[in-house]
Amino acid sequence: MAIFSRRTLQRLINENARFLSKSQLKEHTRRLNKEDEHSLGAEWEVVLLNVFSKLGTVTHEPDLGTRPDLYFVSNLDKSHGFIADIATVSDRGIDEVYPIQALSIGLNDILCKRGLKTSAFGLRVGTEVSTKVWPRPNPRFKIPHRSHLDRDVFNEHFFRFLDAIALAPDQKRTYRISDTRIEIQIKYDPDGKYYSRSWPYNKELTSLVHNTIYSRLEEKATKLARANYSGPAAIIVCDGGCDLLSRARDLASYHVDDAINYFLRENAGIAFVLTFVVQETAPSFQIQRNLVATLYRGKCFSKVGKRILEAFDQMGECFPEAERTAQNAGYLFEGTQAFIGRSFGGASSMSDNEIRISARGLLELLSGKITQEQFFKSHSFVPMPSESRRRWNPFKSKLSQGSLITEITVESGENERDDDWLTIKFGGPDPAVSPFELPPQESRPQR
Fold first, then answer.
1. pLDDT in tens, 246-290
2. How many whole angstroms separate alpha carbon 231 and alpha carbon 310?
3. How confident is the model at residue 129 (pLDDT cuts 50, 70, 90)?
4. Is the distance from CB of 100 to CB of 125 less than 8 angstroms?
5. Which residues, in sequence order, are bridge partners of residue 392?
6. Domain boundaries in the chain?
7. Helices (H), 135-204
8. Phi and psi for 69 in degrees, rounded to 5?
9. What is the pLDDT of residue 195?
10. CA torsion, points 413, 417, 419, 422, in degrees to nearest 10?
């Protein structure tokens, strides 16, 4: 799906049928099946309702004058409970006006489709000069609106630039757009080692109240204030691609902690705010995704029972493993095909007598969804057009050695991933596809 795998989400939907009505389940699947940036909110709702259901009794959208997303009661003490609304926040508005990532991803996709080395290209975006004040204002990128990228950037002039590179791949070239509105530079260097991108950060928190997070908190607080409920009320904020939720504190701007704590001081009726963010790290070059939960206590936090705090301590054990961050999930909605989770793609591994590849990748090849050329390129069995060196095709190597397939096993993707592994085993030389040989010495009669 997006943050969590499709297999994981389907399992949670099935489990949630224990306490949700048919109409509520239908609404969740409808929102998830839209597969757009708004479906991340449904994804978080399905996951959080499932997590809390394993820690206590959950009611979704109870009729309390208004309908909060969650009414939770501890199984250990029925007097300990709370109501909460779930808010999923993103940078969608900023990304529409200043579509930096859409520009970068669009460029990368075009280069890959043309068979050009992305490492040979660099992208730079200019900005308007801002005054030196604190908190410093966010830079205004000189970039067209998302809806005008094809017209203003990826147009006929740009593709002539790529055609010139294809004709003379050893020459450096630069594609520039520079006027009062746009300043974009795409450089090509055949000796480049990595795909470089250059632009300043433009999502600083410059106001405690004029930002997406504070606006959503106020919206949810207004709704919860109308509920006929005397216990603690809370707001759960989930990352839908909002950089402020995971950005580290610096001295040049406010931090998300400042905005949420200020909100709680101004809204005494909210007992606590709980935030959830999937963060990605790469220790020892092995990517790890961790769910980070942060609890912010309001003025009436003393109303929250100790059983609720115990449930918070146990939540980490109940969460499914995330497949990607919310920001990366949002990129998938730019052009992904409907109802298809992430494949292992061109990943593979080999040993003396085994080849391990994506089950979905092989099925796509056999079904005709992808061509043999696409399959070979994704697995690096053939060189890219811009490369001169030869690549190694292990299947071709096994066949040339006279080895045939003897066994194929399916191994489920770890952590409910949306693909499986095929382990293909090969035997020794087979006379069906190799020269005849003398029998082994020990099987010959002694003379």
1. 888 877 678 999 999 999 999 999 999 999 999 877 655 567 788
2. 17
3. low
4. yes
5. none
6. 6-90+207-332, 93-198, 348-429
7. 149-152, 156-167
8. -65, -30
9. 74
10. -10
